[in-house]
Amino acid sequence: MERVQKILSQWGVTSRRQAEKMMIAGRVKINGKVAQLGQKINLEQDQITVDGRLISPKKRPRQLYILVNKPLGVVSTCRDTQNRKTVLDLLPNSLKNGQGLHPVGRLDINSTGALLLTNDGDLTLHLTHPRYHLPKTYEVWIKDNPPESVLEQWRNGVILDQKKTLPAAIKVLKRQREKTLLEIVLTEGRNRQIRRVAEQLGYPVLALHRSAIGALNLKTKDKLLNESGNYRFLTAQEVYYLKQESK
């Protein structure tokens, strides 16, 4: 007997957290009845459907790990109620449909850069858990030219939602008359964190690009991912690296 959300995660349908949201929304059914949080089932006897689609253990897809260079204007979700383009729309139909791929974390619609897609629900759970601090590197244009004192304040942590942010590594890459390019490395991922902190400090974000997730760098692996909208599969070594980082 296994919990429903764990099964959906293990079989690549969605992440465990997203599975719980789907269950609360009534989208998951067991033998025709709406599944309840914490419910356990027997895969040999019970049938699971998600949005009316039967989830069959015999058709479990192989585990996939994909790095995408997300373009501007694309949402980091599997589906969008406003019919906007999603990250799955960047993939061919053979990957987009029936593979259970979902984004690991998010990158807002106005941001670009590195985003992981996988159908490995356990890895998604670990990589998005606050306990783990996989560094993420961003190149951020902000308005005006902040003094070193402001950057040092940002590095040391800023109060956001009544809680101080973790220390951030911040380096000035370029200064122009009315804007500054920063490299920012975060080890946490609060909602729109960089944009909110920059706004709070008085230097709003003009453009935000995630250039790396841990050691997975859009710039150094190959030229393919230099172009927005492209993707590639992770190597076995890179998958091993992510799993080690999330232990």
From TrEMBL:
Enzyme Commission code: 5.4.99.-
Where does the RNA-binding S4 domain lie?
2-63
Key words, A-Z = Isomerase, RNA-binding
Q: Name one GO cellular component term.
A: cytosol
Q: Which InterPro entries match?
A: PsdUridine_s_RsuA/RluB/E/F_cat, PsdUridine_synth_cat_dom_sf, PsdUridine_synth_RsuA/RluA, PsdUridine_synth_RsuA/RluB/E/F, PsdUridine_synth_RsuA/RluB_CS, RsuA_PseudoU_synthase, S4_RNA-bd, S4_RNA-bd_sf
- Give the molecular function GO annotations: RNA binding; rRNA pseudouridine synthase activity
Asked if the Swiss-Prot or TrEMBL record annotates the protein with the keyword Isomerase, the reply is yes
Q: Which Pfam families match?
A: PseudoU_synth_2 (PF00849), S4 (PF01479)
- Its top-level enzyme class, in one word, is isomerase
PROSITE patterns per record: PSI_RSU, S4
GO biological process terms on file: enzyme-directed rRNA pseudouridine synthesis
Q: Which family does it belong to?
A: Belongs to the pseudouridine synthase RsuA family.
The name of this protein is: Pseudouridine synthase
Q: Species name for this entry?
A: Dactylococcopsis salina (strain PCC 8305) (Myxobactron salinum)
